[in-house]
Fold each of these.
Amino acid sequence: MAIIEVEHLMKEFKIAKRETGFLGAMKGLVKREFHTKHAVKDISFTVDKGEMVGYIGPNGAGKSTTIKMLTGILVPSGGTVKVNGIVPYENRQANAKNIGVVFGQRTQLWWDLPTIESFELLKEIYQVSHSRYKENMDTFTEILGLDEFINTPVRQLSLGQRMRADIAASLLHDPPILFLDEPTIGLDVVAKERMRTFIKEINKERDITVILTTHDMEDIEQLCQRMVLIDHGQKVYDGEIAVVKNRFGKIRTLVVDLEQHSTPLTLEKAEVFKEETGRYWIRFNREDISASGVITQITQTHNIKDLTVEEPEIESIISRIYQEGFDGVEQPIPVKSGS
Amino acid sequence: MAFMRYIDLYFKLVAAGIRAQLQYRFAFFMRIVGMLTSYAGTAITMWVMLYQFQELGTWNFYEMLFLFAIAVLSWGFCIILFFHFRSLDTYILNGTFDRFLVRPINPFFHFMAMKFDVASFGQFIFSIFIFIWVSAELQIHWTIANVLFLFAAVIGGVLIQGGLLVIISAFAFWTTKSEQFYWVVMYPARNLTNYPLVIYPKMVQWFMAFVVPFGFVNYFPASVILGKETPYFSENIGYFSPLVGIVFFIIAYYIWMLGLSRYKSTGS
Amino acid sequence: MFNYRLYWTFAKKSFLRSAVYRFDVWSRLGSNVIFLLMWGSIWTVLYAGREEAGGVSFQAMLTYIVVSQFLSGVNGAGTPLWEIQEKVRTGDISLELMRPFDVPLRYLFADFGSVFFYMITALMPLYIILFFFMDLSIPNDPLIWLAFLFAAFIGFLIRYCIEMAFGLLTFFLVETGGVEDIFYFAMSLLSGSVIPLWFFPGWLASFASYLPFQGIYYIPNAIFIGEIAGNQIFTSIGIQLFWVVVTYIFLRLVWKKASQKVVVQGG
C-alpha cells in the first residue's frame, strides 16, 4: 500500500543573475535579470508503508526541494504529491501531524532551554495525550539515553546528543512517516552507529515509513533496501541498493606516492586512471582483489612512500552511473508515464 | 475552541521564551540600560533644541516629552510582542524558518509566540516617569475617560507599529530582506513621530496619517489629550487610533500570509 | 613599510563589493533623505519665519543641516559599528591578525572604497540637485571649500577612530548595550550634527568643545556656512588635528590590548 505518491513532480525557481565587473555592478543597481532553475524536473515514485528509502543525489540535485514539497513547506510548480492521502501543500497542518522531520544541520529544539522543555512544548503543539507522551518519552529515554542530558540546555549538547534529542522530538506525536535529512552528518562513528540502530528499530517496531537523505554510503547500506537516486532534478535510478552496491559500491581507489621509478607500473585486476608527478590513482574492485593484493603487486617493482584507500562517494558513484549507465546490469527503472 | 487552545499555547510558548531570555541576565540588564540611555538621549536633544527657541511650532518642551512618551510606551509593548519579526530574513536564510512550517499550527502565530522580549522595562520606566513629571508641569487633568482613552490609544499604537513590523518582515518572503527594511522604514518613521507631525510638509502629514498611519500612534492622541490644534485634520481624529490600529494590523496579517504563500512557491 | 598597493586593493575591492548590494545604496539614501526632511522641517519651524536667530541667518542654518546630512551620509557609508562588533564576536577580526597587514588600516581603506562608491552613485547626485534647487548659502572662496573638504576628511578620520575603538571594545565586554547607546548619543548631539554648538546652553557648549565629537560635524559644517571664518579656521582645524591624533592613539591602544587578548586567549 503506497503511503507516499509522487507523480511528475516539478519545481522551478527564478534566480537573479549577478553581473560582473564595474559596469555590470552599476547596471545591477538599476536592473537585474533572472533565469529559471529547474530544481526538480520530473520525478515520480511511490513509497509503501513501512519502507525505508534512501533519497540520494549530489548537492543541488533537488533532494531537499523534494523533501520540502513532501512536508508542505514548498508548493510544487507541477505534478502531484500525496502523503498518507493528504496533499501536503493544500493541507499543511493536517499533513504536519502525520510526519516527523529531522534536519541534520538545524535543530528543531528551543536552543536556550533545557532539552526537556522542548519536548514539553512539542507535546502541546502536537496535542499529544499525556499518557502517550509518557510512554514515548520512556521508550526514547531507554533507547537513546536521553536522561544523560535531558536537563541541559540544547545549545550545550554535543552534536550526537542533539541529534538524538531531535529525532526523539520528531517522533513524539507518533507520525507514520519520518523524513530524515542528513541524520548522521558530522557525527562520530559511535554516534552514527547508535543513530542507525535507533532508526532501524523504530522502522521495524513501529512500522514507520522513513525517507532518508544522506551523503554517507554506510547509512544507505545499513538502513535501506531501496534507493532513489536523483541528479539534476531527475530520477536516475530507483531500485534495490544491492544492485548499485554490486556494480559500483565495491570499487575502491588506491592513491600511492612512489619513489623514483624506471619501470612503468603494470597491475593485474586494477587500473591506473590518473598519474601526477609520482602520485598514482589506482582503481580496483574489492571483490576481484583486496587492497593488500594491489599493494603487494606494486611493491614488487616500486617503493611506496605513502598511500591511502578512498571509498567511493555518492557523487562519484552517480557520475559513474551517468558515464557508464547500467549496461549489462540493470536499466534504471524508466519514469512512469500516465498513471 | 481552537481559539482557546491557541491562547493556552501562546502562554506556554511565551513562558518558554522568557525563560530562554533570562538565561542571559547580564545582557538583559544591559539592554534595559541601553534603551533608557537612548531615550534619555532623545529627550536631552529636545531640551537642547528648545533651550534657545522655547517652542517648536506651538509645542513646548513638556508637550513634546508627553508626545514622545506615548510613542515610547507603545513601542515598549511592541518590542515585547513583535520585535523579532524584523529578523525573519535571518530565519529564512539559515533555514530555521522551515520548522514553523512542519508543525500543525498557524505559522504566524507560532512565529509570533516564539519570542517575548521582556527587556522593555526601560521603555516602561522611562514613559511612566515622563507621564508623572509632565502631568504636573502641564497640569493635565487625568479623568477616567482620559486614562481609558490613553490606554486605547496605546493599544492602537502597538497594533500600528506592530503591523508595520509584520509588513516589514513579510518583505523577507519576497526579497529575503527584512532587517534592512526595518532600518529604512521603521527607524525613520519612528524618528519622525518623535516630533509633532504638524511641523512637516502637508504631504508628509497625510502620508503619516493615511498610508503609514504613525500619526495615530502618538501625535493625534496627544493632540486630543493636550487640546492641541491639528491643522488639515479634524480635531477629534485621535479617537480613531484603536480602530486604525485594528484595521492596519489585519491588513498587515494578510500581507504576511500572502508573503508566506509566495515563500511556499519560491522557497526563499 | 607602508604597502600602498595592498591597501589600495582593499579600497578597490570594497568599492566593487558595495556595487553588489544595490539595496543598501537605495536604502541608505532613502533614510538619509527622511532625516534631512525631519531636521529641515524642525529648523524651519524653530526659526518660525525669522530671518535670523542667535546671529545666524535661516539660510545659513538650513545649509548647516543639509551639509551635516551629507556628511552623515558619508560617515554612515563605512563599516557600521554593529558590523565591527559582529566581526569581533564571530572571530573574523581575530583571524585577520594572522594576515600580513594592519587591521584598523585595512578597514579604513575598505571604508574609503565603499564611501567613494556611495558618494558618486547616490550622495553627490542628490545633494548637487538639492543645492541647485534650494536656497542655500554656498561659499564663493575656493579656499573655504578647500578648508571645508579638509576638515570634513579629518572629521571622517576622527569618527572612524572612535567608532572602530568602540567596536573593538566588544573584545572586552560581553554585552555592550549601554556603551553603544552612549556612543550614538554623543555622535548625534555632541558632534553638533543636528544642533549647532552655538545654540547649546553655555555649559554644554563648553563641555562639547572639550570633546573630539565636534570635529566630526560641527567644525566642517560651520566652516562651510562661514560661522567659523578667518583665523578661526586654522585653530579649528588645529583642534581637529589634535583630536585625530589622540583618537588614533586611543584606537591603537585598544587594538594592541585586543590583539594581545587574542594571542593569549585565542579570541
Note: Confidence is low (pLDDT under 50) at residues 327-339 of chain A.
Amino acid sequence: MLTLRGLGKDYGERTAVKAVDLDVVRGEILGLLGPNGAGKTTTISMACGVVTPTRGSVAIGGVALASEPFAAKAKLGLVPQDLAVFEELSALQNLRYFGALYRTRDVEWALDVVGLRDRATEPVKNFSGGMKRRLNIAAGLVHRPELLVLDEPTVGVDPQSRNHIFETVKALHAQGMTVIYTSHYMEEVEALCDRVAIMDHGAIVALGTIGELIAKHAGQGVELELAGNAEAGAAAAVAHGATRDGALLRFPAGAPLGAALAAIEAAGATVARIESRQANLETAFLALTGRALRDTE
Amino acid sequence: MIGAAILKDVQLLLRDRGRLLSLFALPVVFMVVFGSMFKFGPDRGAPRPIPVWSGRPELHLDSLGEGFTVEPAPSADAVRHAVATGDRVAGLVIPPTGPVELVIDLAGPVQVRGPVQGALTAAVMRALAPPIPMPALIEAKSPPGIAKPLDSISAFQVTVPGNAVLFGFFLSMTVAMTFASERRSGTWRRLLAAPVPRWKALVGTLVPYFVIGCVQLAFLFGLGALGFGMQIAGSVVALVALSLAVVLCATCLGLLFASVGGTEKQIGSTAPVVLLVMGLLGGCMFPRIAMPDFMKSLGHVVPHSWALDGYYDVLVRQGTSLADLAPSIGALCGFAALFAALGLWRFRFE
C-alpha cells in the first residue's frame, strides 16, 4: 500500500532522515515508534507529500507520488499531530471544507465514525480535547482514503476518548483500511498494530511483528545485582552468558542459571537482588534506542 | 476548492469580531471623526461664534462673513476671557483708539489658527474700510487639461478614500495572519497533503481575502456615498477598477508579509507599524499636498499615494474616466506584481 525507497531528507548540513526503505502491506496496521527527533514525523510528512524529500521515492497504492501526486494523495488521509481544524467553525463546516479539498460532499458519515454526529453544528472551540482529537481524525477520513496516517492521535485525551479512538481505528481496519500509527504509548501500539517499525537517528532500526521484535531484542530472562566482590562475580556471570549494563547483569531465558550462581558465589560475590524480567515492546524499544533522554524533536 | 476556501474564510471572518471591527467598523469611526474635524464645503456645520466688543460706537460689526457669527460681548475682558478659557477660538476687541485687537491663542497650531486669523482679519478690513466699489481683482481657475472639480467638495470626499485606503491595506495583515495561523494549527499541512496543486493552495488562501477586501471597499464607499453625501464626480467604472487594483495590491502585500513575517505574534507586532508608516507617507492621515516637497516625493514609493491620487481624481474631478486613472491603476498593479514576486520568492510551503 505504501512503498518507501531510500527516502531521506536533509536540512542544510543536518540529516533528518537518512534513507528509509519500508513496505506497508495493504490492510495492516503498522506502528511507527521512535524517540523524539528520530525522524518519524519527517518520514510521514514525506510519505504524505507535505515535505519534499531530498532523495528516494514514495509510492501510494502503486502510484508514484513524484510523478502522479494528485492520484497518489487522493488515496491517503493524514491526521496530523496538531489539532488541524478550525476551532471557530462547526464540526460539519470543517468537514465540508476538508471534503472539498478531495472533491467530496459526502462528509457526514465521518461524524458517525468518530461519534460526533449530535455535535455537528456546534463550534469546535466548545469541544473537549478528546472531541477535538476525534474531529481531527474525521477530517483525515472524510474522503474514505485507502491509507490512513495517524500521527500521535491520542496526545492529551481522556481514557474514554482514547478508547473511542482505538475502537475507531480497529473498525476502520476491519473495513480494510491500511493504517500507519505513530505513538509514544507502547501499550497502544501493542494493542493495535500488526507490525512495528522502530526509528532512531533518521533510520529504521527494527521492523517486524511485536512478537518478533520482543523475541529478537528483548527476550525474557533474569536480572541480577551483586554485592560483596561484585566485580569478580560479574566476570563469572558474563562467562556464563550474562550481559552487563553497569551494576546490572542480565541472563537470557534458558541460560544455565544454576551453574552461573555457583560461579558467582565461588568468586566471592553474593546476590543482592534477583528479578524475573518480563519482556514487552517497551523493553525491546529501550534495548534498540537506549535509555538516554532525547530532548529534541 | 477555491469556492470552499472562500466560504470557509467568510465563515471564519463572521465569527471573528476583532477582524470585523478592524476591517469595517474602525474605518467608519475614522471617517466620521476626521470628516467632522475637517468640515468644509456644503456640510461645514454651524458657523463659529466670535465674541466682539467695540469701544467705538461708530464702528459696529454686524457680520464677519461665511463661517462666523458675531457674538456681542459686554467688555474687552470678557472677550479675552472667553478665548483664554478655550470657550471661543478667537475674539475681536475694538478699542476707542488704535488698531483692532484680534484675540487668539498664538500658541495654537498654525493649521488651526491660520485660517481663522486670516478670515477674521479680512472680515475686519472689509467692515472697517470705506465701501468703495471695486472690480474683481482675482479669480481662481484650474489650468487647461485638468478636469473641472465639483462645485462643492465635502470633507468626506477626502476622508472616505483616505480611510478606505488606510484600512483597506490592513487586509494585508489579515492575509499574513491567516497563513501563520494555518501553519501553526496544522491545517496548512492538511492542505499540502490533499490532492491540490501548491499554486492552488496559495491562491485558495489569497482569493478569499481579495473578495473580502472588495466587500470592505464597497461597504466603505457605499456608506460614504449614501450615508455621508460623498459624491462621485467621475466614472463609476473607473472607481471600481481603481478599488480592485487597491485590493489586489493589499492582498499581494499580505503574501509578502506572510513570507517574511514569521509567527502570528511577529506579524502582529511589525505589520501595523509598516502599514501606518505607509499610510502616513501616502497621505491617508495628512494630505500630501500640504507636505514638504521631499515628503511628497517620498510618498510615491508607497501604493497608498497612487491610490489616493486616483480616488481624489475620480471623486472630485468631473468627467474622470478609466483612462485618466491609468497611471494610478498601473502603479498599483506594478506594486502588486512587485509584492507578489518578492512574496513568492521568499514563500516557504513546507
Note: Residues 159-174 of chain A form the longest helix (16 residues).
